Amino acid sequence: xxxxxxxxxxxxxxxxxxxxxxxxxxxxxxxxxxxxxxxxxxxxxxxxxxxxxxxxxxxxxxxxxxxxxxxxxxxxxxxxxxxxxxxxxxxxxxxxxxxxxxxxxxxxxxxxxxxxxxxx
Length: 120
Description:
By secondary structure, this protein is mainly α. 82% of the residues lie in helices and 0% in strands.
């Protein structure tokens, strides 16, 4: 097996760590939701956390499916972010940190997917 590029190793580690943090924070938000919590965003992020870990593992192992999973995560996160923006535009309750977190998640997964596709 050819040596894994360092940037791909970093992307895989970020994905797994990000996934674990996302699962923990998502579970907390599901157990004790506060005002302004947008449930479809919380549920998506919680479930996606498991996909983050799977993608990270696959990237670490050099699996071709992992780059496609990373791309799907990036796309799905962007779609949920647009849905969240729609929710805001319709006057729905929301928290500023959710806006920042979704922007950050979208950017992180766009970068991880780009690295995955370019380094394969």
